Amino acid sequence: MGRFTRLSGLAVLLAGLVPAGVADAAAQEATQPADQKQAQPAPQKAQPPRVAWIASCTSPGRGQPQECAMEQRAIAKENGQLIGLVSIRVPSETRKPVTMIQLPLNLFLPAGVNVDVDGDMTQNQSFQTCNQTGCFVGFPISDTLLKQLFNGGKLNVTFQYLDKKPVTLPMSLEGFTDAYNRIK
């Protein structure tokens, strides 16, 4: 009898440490028929919404106009290295959008970069410079290209490594319009 008293006392002590919601859920689960227990889906973790384009604004100083830009990065899954970056900004002096594309080193530069939206109206752009962080190409965004970016699903950026084999980075246009409206 003394042994039973000690165990029940321990059970009371442990029950006081378990949060009420956990105890209620355990009790409810224990009273459910077996077929209902299996029918309930497992709780899922909420997934944050995927944001392809990130917009930000900065000012060089107090009282000066803000410079705003939006960007999307392509990152290699294997090693986390940056493969490409597409940045779009609207300079305060012209109010016309321009883009800068950063790609890795060891590229076949004479091929340039081909840019298209959903495979339509490919434009070839020449590289401007390379430094230790990568190679860059920049150009103004025409009204036609801007409309395609608003309505398209994928911005394709195609370039060649030194082996002259084309590599295409498909950049999602999900959220493009919202990000652009924040920077214009």
Description:
It is a single chain. By secondary structure, the chain is of the alpha+beta class. It has 2 domains: 2-38; 54-183, Invasion associated locus B (IalB) protein (Immunoglobulin-like). Helices cover 28% and strands 34% of the residues. The strands form 2 sheets. It has a 6-stranded antiparallel beta sheet with strand order 1-2-3-4-8-7, with helices on one face.
Task: Describe the protein's topology.
Blueprint: H1 2-17, H2 20-31, H3 34-39, E1 54-58, E2 67-75, E3 82-89, E4 98-103, E5 113-117, E6 120-125, E7 129-131, E8 134-140, H4 143-151, E9 154-160, E10 166-172, H5 176-183
Antiparallel strand pairs: 1-2, 2-3, 3-4, 4-8, 5-6, 5-9, 7-8, 9-10
